Amino acid sequence: MKPVMASLKARFGDRLTFHYHEVNAADSEAAVRDFDITSHPQVFLIDPRGRLVKSFAGVVPEGTLTAEVTRLLR
What we know:
- By secondary structure, this protein is of the alpha+beta class.
- It has a single domain, classed as Glutaredoxin.
- 39% of the residues lie in helices and 15% in strands.
- It starts with a helix and ends with a helix.
- It has helices at 2-12, 29-34, 62-73; strands spanning 42-46, 52-57.
- A hairpin with a 5-residue loop joins β1 and β2.
- It contains 3 helices and 2 strands.
- Strands 1-2 form a two-stranded antiparallel sheet.
């Protein structure tokens, strides 16, 4: 997922904020709990108000994420 996320960040980074959490890291405990992370990787799209818009469990094709992000930025 790292290459996909790097591509998305290069394309949309001026309009989105990206956060990365390693599920086994001590400083990620709150994110794992708050977002009920049960698999790795997981991608969450959260709107500017902090609401969860969409989540993806497992590896997600770049085209799928690009389409969702494009739709949300309209």
